[in-house]
């Protein structure tokens, strides 16, 4: 019986293990989940930039950097008492999660003709998976970039009936080529007046979250 040759992914996992093992790299061995957060953020933004610029080679490289961060955290967990999981456990849990989230594909009792159909019953599946969540706001990372957080919260506000985003109103734009300059002009105006656009938006988003919770309580 011939041995199965290791995949390229197997080789990368082995490289990580070698670097963090005794006699390997002191820097790698010293890292913790917390110390790696800055690198995960940096690598993620570099990947986003590669995607947005359409740079194929950069995307290949940055996907590797993000993957390496995942392997790094998994290796740390494998050697941390109380965590005790490795990359295979991460893959197993993710496979189980994706199969469970797609009963319309993997022989479940659901059918989905459109993406909206899928989103509709994903919410039900998430509620079953995480019964401890009592608000549509639970699970939303507050450290998200403010514009991304605003987009997420507006969706939650619509879900609880606080807003109807299908109604026309506010500033009318027909595409992102118009929206980008408009957002930049708003930030430029704030800067000219000594105002902090980021702080202003986050403050408003905190108020929106209060309104969402009040709406949930009233239903």
Give an account of the 3D structure.
By secondary structure, the chain is mainly alpha-helical. The chain has 3 domains: 78 residues, MazG-like (Helix Hairpins); 43 residues, no CATH class; 69 residues, no CATH class. The chain is 66% helix and 0% strand. The chain has 9 helices and no strands. Helix 1 packs across helix 4, helix 3 packs antiparallel against helix 4 and helix 7 packs parallel to helix 9. The protein is globular and about 65 Å long. The mean pLDDT is 92.
In short:
With 219 residues, this protein is mainly α. The chain has 9 helices and no strands.
Helix/strand-derived category reads mainly alpha
**Total DSSP helices:** 9
* Residue share in helix: 55-70%
Through-space gap between termini: 65 Å
CATH architectural group of the largest domain: Orthogonal Bundle
- Which superfamily, in CATH terms, is the homologous superfamily of the largest domain? MazG-like
In the CATH hierarchy, the third-tier topology of the largest domain is known as Helix Hairpins
Number of strands: 0
Question: Which series of helices and strands comes N to C?
Answer: HHHHHHHHH
CATH class of the largest domain: Mainly Alpha
Topology:
Blueprint: H1 8-20, H2 26-30, H3 33-53, H4 56-78, H5 87-101, H6 115-129, H7 146-159, H8 176-192, H9 197-218
Helix pairs in contact: 1-4, 3-4, 7-9
